Amino acid sequence: MFGLWKTWKALEAKGIMGINRRNADYVLKYNKRSLYPIVDDKIITKERAIEAGIQVPEMFGVISTEKEIEKLDDIIGGRTDFVVKPAQGAGGDGILVIADRFEDRFRTVSGKIISHEEIQHQISSILTGLYSLGGHRDRALIEYRVTPDQIFKSISYEGVPDIRIIVLMGYPVMAMLRLPTRQSGGKANLHQGAIGVGVDLATGLTLRGTWLNNIISKHPDTTNAVDGVQLPNWDGFMKLAAGCYELCGLGYIGVDMVLDQDKGPLILELNARPGLNIQIANNCGLTLRTHAVEARLAELAAKGIKETPEERVRFTQELFGHIHQNE
């Protein structure tokens, strides 16, 4: 028992945030329940982002009822690639990525050939709430398929890598690149076997990786190094993430973004309960960083000052960038 207590005190000293602290001190404190639908429903998130002029993958159409499944042909038209996803899904479940057409059938991103009827069946399953949070009836979203920037070709397997930035009251505090693997089925989901790679907030340079809770330096499928990769347009990602506070009103969020080879940085979704594995990938605890932001907020409030997204980004880059400190 004493050994466990000692281990926990060591983690606490390093600023490692546990799930109880995340829920009590951040999720419950900064996230109003009434605002959850904005982030829990991808269609609402997308509509709010479009209104705010924030770049997102284009929405081709929404199917809300069994009857509307008949609209699928009209929605996809002559497109050869698109994505079908549940509006209220979590963890990448229920997402169907179509990469090409094969005669009168479709080819998924993994190369599997499926029929039109199989896509309709998937949409029907989404509508029943099979993949939704809480199992409630859902809507199916048909949208643009992101083509990952070429920089990810050597360090990712099949799917679309994404970038998660945790944001407290508009201040980005920690970032991670999530890389699909063969084990994750091409999905950027850590619980299914994707790799999490820490990212330096100041420079956008990748740090070390974590895979199935082990520290790694190379991608298991491509064998290429995952550290030392310079992510393009990093300041753009940071400003996008910081601006999501004004977009949704939630104070503690995970902002998931992708880098499309043609359209640049795009917001994929927002998460009101971001996971904590990001700390392993960064070899750094969240608590020390969130406390520093809270101290900054108190200091500015006393002076009646509110910072812009650009100023918030500058503050956290100067304070938390690995080039400025030894972590």
TrEMBL record:
UniProt entry keywords in alphabetical sequence: ATP-binding, Ligase, Manganese, Nucleotide-binding
Question: Which PROSITE patterns has this protein been placed in?
Answer: ATP_GRASP
Where would I find the ATP-grasp domain in this sequence?
A: 46-306
One Pfam family, please name it.
ATPgrasp_ST
User: Which terms in the GO cellular component ontology are assigned?
Assistant: cytoplasm
Keyword presence, Ligase: yes
Q: Which GO terms describe its molecular function?
A: ATP binding; metal ion binding; ribosomal S6-glutamic acid ligase activity
UniProt xrefs under Gene3D superfamilies: ATP-grasp fold, A domain, ATP-grasp fold, B domain
**Biological processes per GO annotation:** SOS response
From which domain of life does this come?
Bacteria
State the NCBIfam families in the record. rimK_rel_E_lig
Return the protein name. Answer: Alpha-L-glutamate ligase
In its UniProt entry, the species of origin is given as Pseudomonas endophytica
